[in-house]
Amino acid sequence: MITVLTGAGLSTAAGIPDFRGPDGVWTRDPSRARLLELDVFVGERAAREEGWRDWAAHPAWSARPAEAHRALARLVEAGLCRDVLTQNIDGLHQAAATPDDAVVEMHGALATTSCLDCGFGCPTRDVIDRLVVEPDPRCPYCGGILKPDVVYFGEALRSADLRRASRAARTCDTFVAIGTTLQVYPVAALAGEALAAGASLVIVNASPTSWDRDASLVIRDPIEEAVPALVEERLG
Known about the structure:
By secondary structure, the chain is of the alpha/beta class. It has helices at about 25-30, 40-45, 45-55, 65-75, 90-95, 125-130, 160-170, 190-195, 225-235, and strands at about 1-5, 80-85, 105, 110-115, 120-125, 145-150, 175-180, 200-205, 215-220. The strands form two sheets. Strands 3-2-1-7-8-9 form a six-stranded parallel β-sheet, with helices on both faces. A three-stranded antiparallel β-sheet has the order 5-4-6. β2 (about 80-85), α5 (about 90-95) and β3 (about 105) form a beta-alpha-beta unit. Its EC number is 2.3.1.286. Keywords: Metal-binding, NAD, Transferase, Zinc.
């Protein structure tokens, strides 16, 4: 059984820039990362307004799955992969026909928004549609701060997702990390959990990662070529 972990590099072919790559969002402008710090978002109205403008313009709204997304969906459909763990918030795995129950969105999802006070939830598009008249969106029920259901820096990952991801890492035969630098913990630690349980580690990423020396296979080829080739090899 294969467990897959995907990062921002998977979606670059779909038109969504990564963060830490040579042309990444934070590489070009390190100050942008500050907008994803929870204490900044909560404490500074100007940062919230700027952050919401960024979310409104995010390319995920118009992106379509790339061939690598579709290849991974075929792997799941064939019964060779039970869990697709993703650090991405764009929903492209589901758009590529990977079933919802096979995808674990470790860092949340842009599609929905919640109130930080009362927990009210709604589609993020509904919030974006009101930004012209409400640039600092507030909960219609309690007046609390609305925030996309994306995990910000300083915010804990959902415990249920962590438990499922850990189980998926510990029970697979092969752990495949695609398009991730494996720098952000606790998700990056999943590679170590898989190795400790006896799985082989495959890394598909354009740049080196700290786990490369432990991998049985490291692929630097473009993800759009490498992932479909890996999947076809597994499908026989």
